[in-house]
Amino acid sequence: MSKAFVCIALLAVIALNAGCAILRSNQAAPKMTRGVNLGNALEAPTEGEWGVILEERYFREIARAGFDTVRVPVRWSAHAGAEPPYTIDPVFMERIDWVVDQALRRGLTIVLNMHHYEELATEPDGHCERFLSLWRQIAEHYRSYPPRLVFELLNEPNSALTANKWNDLLFDALLVVRQSNPTRLVVVGPARWNTIEALGELDLPDDPNLIVTFHYYQPFEFTHQGAEWVTGSDAWLGATWDGMQVEQDILRGDLDRALTWAQKHDRPLWLGEFGAYEKAPLDSRLRWTSFVAREAEARGIGWCYWEFCAGFGVYDRETHTWRQSLLEALIPPDK
């Protein structure tokens, strides 16, 4: 489907839903300034397989700690039919409903994304139809939910899902979402794993209800040292981030490049993931985490830490307590 056709169709959908959009025009935009990812739970092949099962207390603790947003990675592709109409398992959908309701009840914004759709990355042409069908079902299911439910089309497009292919697919996906959710906030990021370097390759329609996300894990040898899923990462063990001027300048330069792109294209930015793995030295983790958060805030960029209670976790799920020093690196007591 051509972009021109999609743009025309998208404008038609928005026009058809203009009455609904007008009714919602006075609603405040969802707050997305300080968030945490509920990782290693629903983006696992099955919840609990990676050690995390979401509990009601988590949402209560997150809200009390001062976060305003939770991002929920979901592997929808593992819970839907392989053949048309690619029906999502209703039992799984009920579980997602529970998660959404827990967040909304506590005043949190919840960003519901599509995570680890690995087949789409490796064989995009064979999975585009299924991807769009999944979003059609999700969007229609949540069409009456309040604006604090936000959709994120796809986590970290990569591999064979190149920038050009992703740009075309996100146009189609947004058209699908807008048929039932004409004004809901939708998060989109660039190809190449949502990196800052790929922002320049992102091509977006003229939709006022988009927010652009990027992820930040630099320097990678520091943030992912000892990570079991990264080949050769044990060689990086002991790497530090000391906050030297040159280290600060690199990090500031990266965020400045993201901000420059956003200003040029008049798009709001959201740092959807950042974090350092638990095998990194704690003092460096705290220093880096605090610096990234404060520098993002200084540029008006909301952030969402990766993640809540697993290998990067700010919360200890065994003792049901916050890792206080890491929490304070994210949300200083005086803020």
In short:
This protein has twelve helices and ten strands.
Q: What order do the helices and strands come in, and which of them pair?
A:
Elements: H1 3-16, H2 18-24, E1 34-37, H3 56-65, E2 69-72, H4 90-105, E3 109-113, H5 118-122, H6 124-141, E4 149-152, H7 163-180, E5 186-188, H8 191-194, E6 210-216, H9 220-223, H10 245-265, E7 269-274, H11 282-298, E8 302-305, E9 315-316, E10 321-322, H12 324-330
Parallel strand pairs: 1-2, 1-8, 2-3, 3-4, 4-5, 5-6, 6-7, 7-8
Antiparallel strand pairs: 9-10
Helix pairs in contact: 1-7, 6-7, 10-11, 11-12
Question: What are the main properties of this structure?
Answer:
335 residues, alpha/beta, TIM Barrel, eight-stranded parallel beta barrel, two-stranded antiparallel sheet, globular, disordered N terminus
Question: Under the CATH scheme, which class?
Answer: Alpha Beta
- What share of residues are in beta strands? 5-15%
CATH superfamily: Glycosidases
Quickly give the CATH architecture.
Answer: Alpha-Beta Barrel
- Distance N terminus to C terminus? 48 Å
**Nearest-integer average pLDDT:** 92
Overall geometric form: globular
Number of domains: 1
Overall structural class, as computed from helix and strand content, comes to alpha/beta
Q: Write down how many β-strands occur, each being a DSSP E stretch of 2 or more residues.
A: 10
> What is the count of DSSP helices, taking H or I runs of 4+ residues?
12
The biggest sheet amounts to: 8 strands, parallel, barrel
Low confidence ranges: 1-26
Our Rg estimate from Cα atoms comes to 19 Å
Which percent range fits the helix content? 40-55%
CATH topology, what is it called?
A: TIM Barrel
Query: What's the multimeric state?
Result: single chain
Tell me the series of helices and strands, N- to C-terminal: HHEHEHEHHEHEHEHHEHEEEH
Q: What strand line-up does the widest sheet have?
A: 1-2-3-4-5-6-7-8
